[in-house]
Protein backbone atom coordinates (compact mmCIF):
# COMPACT_ATOMS: atom_id res chain seq x y z
CA UNK A 1 0.00 0.00 0.00
CA UNK A 2 2.99 2.31 -0.41
CA UNK A 3 1.40 4.11 -3.36
CA UNK A 4 -1.97 4.63 -1.68
CA UNK A 5 -2.35 8.04 -0.10
CA UNK A 6 -4.91 9.02 2.50
CA UNK A 7 -6.69 12.13 1.32
CA UNK A 8 -6.66 14.92 3.88
CA UNK A 9 -8.91 17.98 3.99
CA UNK A 10 -6.05 20.25 2.88
CA UNK A 11 -5.58 18.08 -0.24
CA UNK A 12 -8.84 19.20 -1.83
CA UNK A 13 -7.03 21.40 -4.37
CA UNK A 14 -5.64 18.32 -6.11
CA UNK A 15 -8.51 16.00 -5.23
CA UNK A 16 -8.94 14.76 -8.79
CA UNK A 17 -5.26 13.89 -9.13
CA UNK A 18 -5.22 12.05 -5.77
CA UNK A 19 -8.33 10.08 -6.67
CA UNK A 20 -6.80 9.04 -9.97
CA UNK A 21 -3.63 7.90 -8.17
CA UNK A 22 -5.54 5.92 -5.53
CA UNK A 23 -7.96 4.35 -7.99
CA UNK A 24 -5.10 3.50 -10.34
CA UNK A 25 -3.18 1.81 -7.51
CA UNK A 26 -6.25 -0.18 -6.44
CA UNK A 27 -7.07 -1.12 -10.04
CA UNK A 28 -3.52 -2.39 -10.65
CA UNK A 29 -3.62 -4.45 -7.43
CA UNK A 30 -6.94 -6.00 -8.54
CA UNK A 31 -5.56 -6.80 -11.99
CA UNK A 32 -2.51 -8.51 -10.47
CA UNK A 33 -4.73 -10.52 -8.12
CA UNK A 34 -7.00 -11.52 -11.00
CA UNK A 35 -4.06 -12.57 -13.20
CA UNK A 36 -2.67 -14.61 -10.31
CA UNK A 37 -5.97 -16.42 -9.74
CA UNK A 38 -6.30 -17.14 -13.47
CA UNK A 39 -2.75 -18.51 -13.59
CA UNK A 40 -3.57 -20.78 -10.62
CA UNK A 41 -6.54 -22.09 -12.62
CA UNK A 42 -4.05 -23.62 -15.07
CA UNK A 43 -2.33 -25.74 -12.42
CA UNK A 44 -2.93 -29.50 -12.81
CA UNK A 45 -4.69 -29.22 -16.18
CA UNK A 46 -3.50 -31.80 -18.71
CA UNK A 47 -4.84 -30.30 -21.94
CA UNK A 48 -5.63 -26.94 -23.51
CA UNK A 49 -9.40 -27.55 -23.28
CA UNK A 50 -9.09 -28.34 -19.56
CA UNK A 51 -7.14 -25.10 -19.14
CA UNK A 52 -9.75 -23.09 -21.02
CA UNK A 53 -12.61 -24.51 -18.96
CA UNK A 54 -10.66 -24.06 -15.70
CA UNK A 55 -10.00 -20.40 -16.53
CA UNK A 56 -13.69 -19.88 -17.26
CA UNK A 57 -14.71 -21.57 -14.00
CA UNK A 58 -12.33 -19.24 -12.16
CA UNK A 59 -13.49 -16.19 -14.11
CA UNK A 60 -17.16 -16.82 -13.45
CA UNK A 61 -16.41 -17.69 -9.83
CA UNK A 62 -17.92 -21.12 -9.27
CA UNK A 63 -16.35 -21.08 -5.80
CA UNK A 64 -18.80 -18.29 -4.98
CA UNK A 65 -21.88 -20.31 -5.96
CA UNK A 66 -23.42 -19.63 -2.55
CA UNK A 67 -23.67 -15.93 -3.37
CA UNK A 68 -26.12 -16.77 -6.17
CA UNK A 69 -27.89 -19.55 -4.31
CA UNK A 70 -27.30 -19.60 -0.52
CA UNK A 71 -28.57 -23.20 -0.36
CA UNK A 72 -25.69 -24.48 -2.50
CA UNK A 73 -22.04 -24.07 -1.57
CA UNK A 74 -18.98 -25.17 -3.54
CA UNK A 75 -16.76 -26.97 -1.04
CA UNK A 76 -14.18 -28.59 -3.34
CA UNK A 77 -12.76 -27.88 -6.75
CA UNK A 78 -9.99 -30.21 -7.88
CA UNK A 79 -8.38 -30.79 -11.23
CA UNK A 80 -6.78 -34.04 -12.31
CA UNK A 81 -8.28 -35.85 -9.32
CA UNK A 82 -7.95 -39.59 -8.70
CA UNK A 83 -11.25 -41.24 -7.73
CA UNK A 84 -11.35 -44.70 -6.16
CA UNK A 85 -14.51 -46.74 -6.63
CA UNK A 86 -15.10 -50.22 -5.26
CA UNK A 87 -13.33 -51.95 -8.13
CA UNK A 88 -11.52 -49.24 -10.08
CA UNK A 89 -9.37 -46.17 -9.90
CA UNK A 90 -9.98 -43.25 -12.29
CA UNK A 91 -8.33 -39.94 -13.03
CA UNK A 92 -11.01 -37.35 -13.72
CA UNK A 93 -10.48 -33.96 -15.33
CA UNK A 94 -12.32 -32.02 -12.63
CA UNK A 95 -14.20 -32.83 -9.46
CA UNK A 96 -16.48 -30.20 -8.00
CA UNK A 97 -17.98 -30.93 -4.60
CA UNK A 98 -21.07 -29.09 -3.41
CA UNK A 99 -22.84 -28.89 -0.09
CA UNK A 100 -26.61 -28.80 -0.50
CA UNK A 101 -28.38 -27.14 2.43
CA UNK A 102 -31.94 -28.22 3.10
CA UNK A 103 -34.33 -27.19 5.86
CA UNK A 104 -33.26 -29.91 8.30
CA UNK A 105 -30.31 -31.57 6.59
CA UNK A 106 -27.16 -31.27 4.48
CA UNK A 107 -26.08 -33.40 1.53
CA UNK A 108 -22.76 -33.59 -0.29
CA UNK A 109 -23.05 -33.70 -4.08
CA UNK A 110 -20.03 -34.55 -6.25
CA UNK A 111 -19.95 -33.57 -9.89
CA UNK A 112 -17.24 -34.82 -12.23
CA UNK A 113 -16.57 -32.64 -15.27
CA UNK A 114 -14.92 -34.34 -18.23
CA UNK A 115 -13.37 -32.48 -21.15
CA UNK A 116 -13.44 -34.76 -24.17
CA UNK A 117 -11.00 -33.83 -26.91
CA UNK A 118 -11.77 -35.21 -30.37
CA UNK A 119 -8.62 -37.27 -30.98
CA UNK A 120 -8.67 -39.10 -27.67
CA UNK A 121 -12.39 -39.42 -26.97
CA UNK A 122 -14.71 -38.84 -29.93
CA UNK A 123 -12.41 -40.02 -32.67
CA UNK A 124 -11.69 -43.36 -31.02
CA UNK A 125 -14.53 -45.93 -30.86
CA UNK A 126 -12.88 -48.10 -28.19
CA UNK A 127 -12.26 -45.03 -26.01
CA UNK A 128 -15.93 -44.05 -26.31
CA UNK A 129 -16.89 -47.51 -24.98
CA UNK A 130 -14.39 -47.16 -22.12
CA UNK A 131 -15.77 -43.68 -21.30
CA UNK A 132 -19.34 -45.04 -21.09
CA UNK A 133 -18.30 -47.96 -18.85
CA UNK A 134 -16.29 -45.64 -16.65
CA UNK A 135 -19.15 -43.14 -16.41
CA UNK A 136 -21.59 -45.92 -15.45
CA UNK A 137 -19.20 -47.07 -12.70
CA UNK A 138 -18.80 -43.52 -11.37
CA UNK A 139 -22.59 -42.98 -11.38
CA UNK A 140 -23.09 -46.29 -9.53
CA UNK A 141 -20.62 -45.06 -6.90
CA UNK A 142 -22.40 -41.78 -6.18
CA UNK A 143 -20.70 -39.40 -8.59
CA UNK A 144 -22.59 -37.40 -11.19
CA UNK A 145 -20.82 -36.80 -14.51
CA UNK A 146 -21.16 -34.04 -17.08
CA UNK A 147 -19.13 -34.13 -20.31
CA UNK A 148 -18.14 -31.37 -22.72
CA UNK A 149 -16.59 -31.82 -26.13
CA UNK A 150 -13.44 -29.94 -26.97
CA UNK A 151 -15.28 -28.01 -29.67
CA UNK A 152 -17.99 -26.91 -27.19
CA UNK A 153 -15.32 -25.69 -24.76
CA UNK A 154 -13.36 -23.91 -27.50
CA UNK A 155 -16.44 -22.33 -29.01
CA UNK A 156 -18.07 -21.06 -25.80
CA UNK A 157 -16.52 -22.12 -22.50
CA UNK A 158 -18.78 -19.70 -20.63
CA UNK A 159 -21.82 -21.67 -21.88
CA UNK A 160 -20.22 -24.85 -20.50
CA UNK A 161 -19.87 -23.24 -17.07
CA UNK A 162 -23.47 -22.02 -17.29
CA UNK A 163 -24.51 -25.63 -18.02
CA UNK A 164 -22.61 -26.78 -14.91
CA UNK A 165 -24.44 -24.18 -12.81
CA UNK A 166 -27.82 -25.15 -14.31
CA UNK A 167 -27.07 -28.87 -13.84
CA UNK A 168 -26.20 -28.40 -10.15
CA UNK A 169 -29.22 -26.16 -9.55
CA UNK A 170 -31.58 -28.70 -11.19
CA UNK A 171 -30.06 -31.50 -9.11
CA UNK A 172 -30.64 -29.48 -5.93
CA UNK A 173 -34.24 -28.69 -6.96
CA UNK A 174 -34.93 -32.37 -7.76
CA UNK A 175 -33.62 -33.55 -4.38
CA UNK A 176 -35.38 -30.71 -2.55
CA UNK A 177 -38.66 -31.55 -4.33
CA UNK A 178 -38.28 -35.19 -3.32
CA UNK A 179 -37.69 -34.22 0.31
CA UNK A 180 -40.75 -31.94 0.36
CA UNK A 181 -42.95 -34.53 -1.34
CA UNK A 182 -41.57 -37.59 0.42
Secondary-structure map:
Blueprint: H1 15-41, H2 48-60, H3 65-68, E1 72-84, E2 89-101, E3 106-116, H4 118-122, H5 125-140, E4 143-149, H6 150-181
Parallel strand pairs: 3-4
Antiparallel strand pairs: 1-2, 2-3
Helix pairs in contact: 1-2, 2-6
Brief overview, please?
The protein is an alpha+beta fold.
Write a structural description:
With 182 residues, the protein is an alpha+beta fold. The protein has two domains: 9-38; 47-181, Trna Endonuclease, Chain: A, domain 1 (3-Layer(aba) Sandwich). It has helices at 15-41, 48-60, 65-68, 118-122, 125-140, 150-181, and strands at residues 72-84, 89-101, 106-116, 143-149. The chain has a four-stranded mixed beta sheet. Strand 1 (72-84) and strand 2 (89-101) form a beta hairpin. Helix 1 crosses helix 2. The radius of gyration is 22 Å and the shape is globular. The N and C termini lie far apart (56 Å).
Amino acid sequence: MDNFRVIQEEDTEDLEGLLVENVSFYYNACVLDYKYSLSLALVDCESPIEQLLAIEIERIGLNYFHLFNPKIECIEYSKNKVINTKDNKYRVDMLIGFLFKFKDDYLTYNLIVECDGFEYHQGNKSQIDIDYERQADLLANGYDVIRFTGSAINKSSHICVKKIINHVTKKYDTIDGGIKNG
